[in-house]
DH domain-containing protein (Dendroctonus ponderosae), 307 residues
Amino acid sequence: MATAALQDLYQYNNYCKFFEACRLMRGLIEIPLDGYLLTPVQRICKYPLQLAELLKYTRTDHEDYANIKEALEVMRGVAMLINERKRMMESLEKLAAWQQRVDGWEGEDLIGVSSQLIRQGEVAKVTTGVWTTNITLFLFDHQLVYCKKDILKRNTYVYKGRIRLDATEIIDVPDGKDSSLNVNVRHAIKLLDGAKEKKWFVFCCRSLKEKQRWLEAFQEERRLVGLNSESLNLPPAARQLAKLAACRQKRPPRKITHGGKLQQQRGYLGSSMLQLNVSSSNSLLGRKMATWFNFGTGKKSRHRVAS
């Protein structure tokens, strides 16, 4: 929290000058102030090395041997926990930054319940008995977000909805006629959202191999949710901090130099943007499912299904 507050202060010229004046008065080397704040935390990861070296030169019959060995195990666990939390915070920043680039986002923030992206890919969503829509699925822990590509803005998505996976049943649909929609489907996966009055979602994949990857991804999502519920649960304050860090990526903090010019603060902690697999070479799903979907209506976003 202290580092986040300091990053906010760097946006103001007077604070930049004040921090630089304090550094010059003390004759300190040119290290950002937030670097000093992080130093105690960074040294925690060195404690296991020091304890391991101390244990190496301690006799097994020494009265402190057992205590040193126990301290070494504890500090190794602490170091692993710090590294894992740091990884999760960086992941939250990437998710928050990705959400800012999705047009028309509705409802709760993505990082309110999710912490990592598991899989993404294009599928055909069967909306009614005679229509399908090409969409992109983003599978996160606890939820599945579906969007459409913006045809005017490159690498930009338009939010269409989400499915809460904690109360959702995943069904492997065999090829043929689906009883709930009364249409023929192929390589389909059905989701029964129990949180929305038993609402059905049917998604058709490009191939059987792609469908199997999605089924495995849904299983992995449930496994990760179980692991996180038992070990790591970031508090709401940490998620809010990640959101603020993502917002600051658009306007990096500044620092005052000897020449009086403002530069980007080298101690800035923001993570890089989430890289999404968007390829212009991918053809429409309808062309690869021609035996099951007819696309002769001339409409770009909705296609007729052959029942």
About this structure: The radius of gyration is 26 Å. Residues 251-307 have pLDDT under 50 and may be disordered. The helical segments are 2-9, 13-26, 33-44, 47-56, 65-100, 208-230, 236-248, 285-288. Residues 65-100 form the longest helix (36 residues).
